[in-house]
Amino acid sequence: VSGKKGRKPLADTSNLQEEIIEKPVSSKSDSLVSSTPVAKKRSISKVLDASADIPLRSDGNIDILKILKIAVRDFDQGIISLGSSRSYKSSNHLYVNSEHYIKVPKESTYDAEMYRVLVNWLRKIHGYEITGQWHLEQVCDDGDYHHLYCDLTIKKPENPHLEALLELLATASISKLDGHFEQVFKYEEQLHPREIWIVHFSREDYVVTNPYWPSEKLQEKELNVVHFWHDRDFKNVRISVRFRDTTDHMLPEIDKTELLSSSIAKLSAENDIIKAENNKIKAENDKIRAENTELKARIVKLEDMQTQNELIKNLLSISQKILT
What segment(s) does the record annotate as region Disordered (predicted)? Predict the structure, then answer.
């Protein structure tokens, strides 16, 4: 299906189920590579909420879409939320909460979280190679060398080719999406991944209800696209995805209303317990401070009495000398 050029002024999301999920910025000039396997000393559940097992498709290859869903579920809510006030860009003409020019997280915010989760899960548990900002060079149409940077790649150490190439975007316009739909194939020419994914995180109101897809030509070249919409606090996340399945057919839009796994209630309960413990400790500290204040007052009083006694003693000594 060819991409839609039009945009509605306001999204109607009332028919969508909302999902509550629980839940350092890399420079384009830096290459982040993690390839050394780490001993499996602990379950990933100790580090992340993701399952330690890698989801597989029916053909035995890893299921990139499920990996992305699991990874996003483990993004740190606070970090994504702060992106709108600390590491942000403008939504410009795109509608966010029915308004233009709203502060939204930059791509680097999502890059850092995705890299963190994939490294802690796929590399440290399973020994996969995770590379961020892979530096490539290419002679372009102008005849000059150009520097290119691929956002993320996933690779099994024993395989010669990549499992997947991930290109991340943040609240992108149609022109920006079109540019990356084409750009990603420049990476593909050099890296030869099994799958190519555009992963678009967006605060735009209707990125899921009226998603924009690549042209049929690019879909035939096996370009997979997933749009993740989320609210400012990253408590509600919805997705829309179009990808090629194991039978080599491009599946239509799916998962528009799919709920990612949620454990916010569990986290809230744990936070309540922690807050209660903190309040208890604070009360004990306040009691200790009060007792310390009382002790200090008693010490001062005793010191005053000691000073008075010394003064009386000195006066008596002087009087005795005068009398003698």
Answer: 1-34
Ramachandran class of 192: left when φ > 0, alpha when ψ lies in -120 to 50, beta otherwise? left
The string of pLDDT tens digits covering residues 89-147 is: 999 999 999 999 999 999 999 999 999 999 999 999 999 999 988 888 777 777 787 88
The DSSP line for 138-167 is EE-TTSSEEEEEEEEEEE-TT-SS-SEEEE
Using a 10 angstrom Cβ sphere, with 0-12 exposed, 13-18 middle and 19 or more buried, the burial of residue 24 is exposed
Contact 25, 108 (CB under 8 A): yes
Contact 71, 114 (CB under 8 A): yes
d(CA 63, CA 220) in angstroms, rounded, equals 20
Strands of the chain, DSSP E? 32-34, 88-90, 103-105, 129-139, 145-155, 164-170, 195-202, 223-230, 237-242
* C-alpha–C-alpha distance, residues 75 and 183, integer Å: 26
Sign of CA dihedral 133, 112, 124, 185: negative
CA-nearest of 226, 227, 222 to 247 is: 222
Tell me how many degrees the CA angle 80-155-169 measures, rounded to the nearest 5: 30
Counting beta carbons within 10 angstroms of the beta carbon of residue 310, is it exposed (0 to 12), middle (13 to 18) or buried (19 or more)? exposed
Stretch (H or E) spanning 204: none
Residues 6+ apart with CB under 8 A from 37: 123, 126, 127, 157
Supply angle C-alpha 190, 243, 133, rounded to 5: 35
| DSSP letters spanning 68-121 | HHHHHHTS-HHHHHHHTTTSEEE-TTS-BTTBSS-EEE-HHHHHHHHHHHHIII
Contact predicate 121/71, CB 8 Å: yes
Half-sphere exposure of 247 (CA within 13 A, CB side): 3
How many CA atoms lie within 13 Å of 67's alpha carbon, on the beta-carbon side?
A: 26
